[in-house]
UniProtKB/TrEMBL annotation:
<comment type="pathway">
    <text>Cofactor biosynthesis; NAD(+) biosynthesis; quinolinate from iminoaspartate: step 1/1.</text>
</comment>
<feature type="binding site">
    <location>
        <position position="174"/>
    </location>
    <ligand>
        <name>iminosuccinate</name>
    </ligand>
</feature>
<keyword id="KW-0808">Transferase</keyword>
<dbReference type="Pfam" id="PF02445">
    <property type="entry name" value="NadA"/>
</dbReference>
<feature type="binding site">
    <location>
        <position position="336"/>
    </location>
    <ligand>
        <name>[4Fe-4S] cluster</name>
    </ligand>
</feature>
<keyword id="KW-0408">Iron</keyword>
<keyword id="KW-0411">Iron-sulfur</keyword>
<keyword id="KW-0963">Cytoplasm</keyword>
<feature type="binding site">
    <location>
        <position position="289"/>
    </location>
    <ligand>
        <name>iminosuccinate</name>
    </ligand>
</feature>
<feature type="binding site">
    <location>
        <position position="57"/>
    </location>
    <ligand>
        <name>iminosuccinate</name>
    </ligand>
</feature>
<keyword id="KW-0479">Metal-binding</keyword>
<comment type="function">
    <text>Catalyzes the condensation of iminoaspartate with dihydroxyacetone phosphate to form quinolinate.</text>
</comment>
<comment type="similarity">
    <text>Belongs to the quinolinate synthase family. Type 3 subfamily.</text>
</comment>
<dbReference type="InterPro" id="IPR036094">
    <property type="entry name" value="NadA_sf"/>
</dbReference>
<feature type="binding site">
    <location>
        <position position="121"/>
    </location>
    <ligand>
        <name>[4Fe-4S] cluster</name>
    </ligand>
</feature>
<keyword id="KW-0662">Pyridine nucleotide biosynthesis</keyword>
<feature type="binding site">
    <location>
        <position position="246"/>
    </location>
    <ligand>
        <name>[4Fe-4S] cluster</name>
    </ligand>
</feature>
């Protein structure tokens, strides 16, 4: 088996002290049982006043999201990160790749803080820059790199965004993937797209939104020579999909969709495009977290929904809309474990550290990576569509 420097260890195989790095917070991490955590968070946020700007992704816990100045999906948070250039500290309640993007999109004097450094993303970790560079070499050797445009999902490390910026590519999110693919196909005659790292978002967008035949979407396995593809498969492909997926959205299955349709009359299935193609094919509606929220807000009272996305968001929607029947599209509990790393003790610890004059867990991207990642992010922000306040 090929050895790669993947930061995540398969369960039960060895130990990885670095994977627990966020737990060992310098100073005092308050106990989760501390009854004063909410009051402490309020007091620290009030003491920091305009100096701090808190961003919260929709998958964050209720206990944390209540303190966000802005909530949103990945696109909205990337755009809003730059909304408060006067704020000295951006506390990012989300995951590492989002905080990196916020650092890239904010001013040089602004400091981006991730309350727990262990809040990574298993999907982002499925593509490492050295693997992507090796892939590019293989595409060059196959004589097709000149026609390939790299597109990376926001859920990727800054160095992969920079790779896309340097090689004429773009970043996309789940809310603008179709526009980004259209842009990418327009960049070169007979363009092919290397789509990183989520094969499902790439396939769902290409096939269902752009009408690209399924057999022109091939999966590049970075652990196999030449991605496990023949020269002919590569030549015929329009979409070269990186073999990555979201461990949360990958759980939803077409069988559960069938079961729910059989048991809940008139249920509408609403899913995120990170779900498997077979699930999205059976769904009524598909879209980003922001789209899911807007759809439920606009839905009539009494309507029934089964939602395939992270459980914190589904539970929050169910609580906020007691007049609608909202079900989770999985039989088991399915939180994003890394999003859940940001809990109230870490949030309080981060804010109180700032009040005390130390900057904890600052996320910084080196200038050369930042320059090219910004190119790819700015190309995304300039795409037509969701670029204004929405
Ligand atoms: P969006 O917020 O863009 O829908 O992405 C979902 C997600 O998985 C973020 O990690
Ligand atoms: Fe990553 Fe999936 Fe969690 Fe989003 S929900 S942070 S893609 S593991």
């Amino acid at each position: 088996m090929t050895t790669v420097d993947l930061p995540l260890l398969p369960l039960g195989r060895g130990t990885d002290i670095a994977s627990e790095r966020g737990v060992d917070c310098p100073g005092d991490l308050p106990a989760a049982s501390d009854p004063d955590l909410v009051a402490r968070a309020q007091a620290a946020k009030a003491a920091l006043g305009e100096r701090v700007f808190v961003l919260g992704h929709h998958y964050q816990r209720d206990e944390v999201i209540q303190f966000a100045d802005v909530t949103g999906d990945s696109f909205k948070l990337a755009r809003d990160a730059a909304a408060r250039p006067d704020a000295e500290f951006i506390v990012f309640c989300g995951v590492h790749f989002m905080a990196e993007s916020a650092d890239i999109l904010t001013g040089p004097d602004q400091k981006v803080i991730l309350p727990d450094l262990a809040a990574g993303c298993s999907m982002a970790d499925m593509a490492r820059i050295f693997q992507v560079e090796k892939t590019w070499d293989a595409l060059t050797a196959a004589g097709i790199a000149d026609s390939v445009v790299p597109v990376t999902y926001m859920n990727s490390s800054a160095d992969i965004k920079a790779f896309c910026g340097r090689n004429g590519g773009v970043v996309c999110t789940s809310s603008n993937a179709e526009t980004a693919l259209e842009w990418a196909f327009d960049q070169k005659p007979d363009a092919k797209i290397l789509f990183l790292p989520d094969q499902h978002l790439g396939r769902n967008t290409a096939v269902l939104k752009m009408g690209i035949p399924l057999d022109q979407c091939v999966v590049w396995n970075p652990l196999k020579p030449n991605g496990g593809l023949t020269a002919e498969e590569l030549q015929n492909a329009r979409m070269i999909l990186w073999k990555g997926h979201c461990s949360v959205h990958g759980r939803f299955s077409p069988e559960v969709v069938d079961e729910l349709r059989a048991t809940i009359p008139d249920v509408q299935i609403l899913v995120h495009p990170e779900c498997q193609h077979e699930v999205v094919l059976k769904a009524d509606l598909v879209g980003s977290t922001e789209f899911i929220i807007q759809t439920i807000e606009a839905a009539p009272a009494g309507s029934s929904w089964a939602i395939g996305t992270e459980l914190n968001l589904v539970q929050r929607l169910a609580k906020a809309h007691p007049d609608k029947h909202i079900t989770f599209l999985d039989k088991t509990v399915c939180y994003c474990s890394t999003m859940n790393r940001i809990d109230l003790p870490h949030f309080v610890w981060a804010l109180e550290s700032l009040v005390a004059g130390t900057v904890p867990n600052q996320i910084t991207v080196d200038p050369e990576t930042e320059r090219w990642a910004l190119t790819a992010l700015e190309r995304m922000l300039a795409l037509p569509g969701r670029t204004h306040k929405d």
